[in-house]
Amino acid sequence: QVQLVESGGGLVQAGDSLRLSCTASGRTFGTSTVGWFRQAPGKEREFVAAICRTGGIVYYTESVKGRFSIFRDVAKTTWYLQMNSLKREDTAVYYCAATLPVSSDWCLRYTQIPDHYNYWGQGTQVTVSS
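User: That's the sequence. What structure does it adopt?
Assistant: Structure tokens below.
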């Protein structure tokens, strides 16, 4: 059974940093895409960042470029989202998501679309106060 478990959320002040972790188990993810999404109250789930396949292209939504960084610890099968210079508008529940094996072409087309991910974590709350 595949499981994604997020951790690292919390309450911080604007300008602070947080590192979210997503630990995967139940299968290998060598040619999968792993991403982070977030959902704020009353809003749809939105794409934040993703790594297309192991060592592949990294994608970010425009609003987090230069502030957030996604990376993987291969030995631990853990993906991270380093969030710096946090803003109030980053407040949301953050979800880790993963796909079954995908091609590079899939990444070009579907990386930012939640419906194309097969596995989801339970989410971790990030609250940024001013």
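The chain has one helix and eleven strands.
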